[in-house]
Amino acid sequence: MSKFTALYKNDTKLLKSQECRRQQRILECKKKRNAAVMILRDIHIEDKEEKPGKRSNCKIMLAEELNEIPEDLMENWYILPVPKGYRNLLISNNNKTRAYSKYGKKIDNFDSILPGGSSLTITQKHTAIDTIYCKEINKYYVLDAICWNSLELCNNSTDMRFFWLKSKMEEMYNQFPNLPENDRRFIYLQRYRMSNWDCSEWKKNNSDTFLLNNMDGYLIYHEKTIYEPGLTPLVGWIPYEDIDILLNSV
């Protein structure tokens, strides 16, 4: 029996706590639309070089391991299949792109086609995206957007951020149609409404062989959560081997 199964079936006190915290957090999101900008305060937009190993105060939004199936799972949640890799926050500004670990440690510095990420983009604005870095293929699977081309998105709901991210990444690659494959480092991670999710169909129709062969698990996002730093019950983590337990329990 997996850890997920044990938690789902046995710990009633914990289950109530997580569901109550979800409902409370949804109400807080509606009242505190301006609170999430604290993430952006620590984005360095000054023109200076930073050495690898430097720590940033920027924090990413982290999922809680799913202990209880949300009551509104089929109505109000998205699901994202995610590969094994390293969680990275990417910040592009002043013609440079910087990668930070989920603990805020700077781990890389490179040119990219993200707005503000290199001389190719010709902009003084900045972008911050939440990603999973896969070292084997040297690519970043993009989970979420905090800001894009200096437009702050963290106060917007999940469905708005996901829509904006998809459309802007398509525009970005359309702007550079002849970009070499080695420079196409950002992959929009497909996401689905839980009401439309079919795990077998997804595996059958997915052309991303790396993702299929290197699955780590699934993230689920409530459609109305804002992007805020730290753990939140409005984003859940499901290990790869436990997805059937979830679907069979709905």
**Corresponding CATH superfamily:** DNA ligase/mRNA capping enzyme
Indicate the CATH topology.
Answer: D-amino Acid Aminotransferase, Chain A, domain 1
Low-confidence stretches: 1-15, 44-49
Q: What is the mean pLDDT?
A: 83
Supply the CATH class.
Answer: Alpha Beta
The Rg value, from CA coordinates, equals 18 Å
Instruction: Tell me the count of domains.
Output: 1
Query: What is the count of β-strands?
Result: 12
Shape: globular
Name the CATH architecture.
2-Layer Sandwich
Count of helical stretches:
7
Please summarize the sheet with the most strands: 7 strands, mixed
Structural class based on helices, strands and sheet pairing: alpha+beta
Strand content: 25-35%
In which range does the helix fraction lie? 25-40%
Give the helices and strands as they follow along the chain.
HHEHEEEEEEEHEEHHEEH
InterPro entries: Snurportin-1, Snurportin1_C
Family: Belongs to the snurportin family.
Keywords: Cytoplasm, Nucleus, RNA-binding, Transport
Domain Snurportin-1 m3G cap-binding: 59-238
Protein traits:
about 250 residues; D-amino Acid Aminotransferase, Chain A, domain 1; 7-stranded mixed sheet; 12 strands; globular; transport; RNA-binding; RNA binding; Snurportin1_C; nucleus
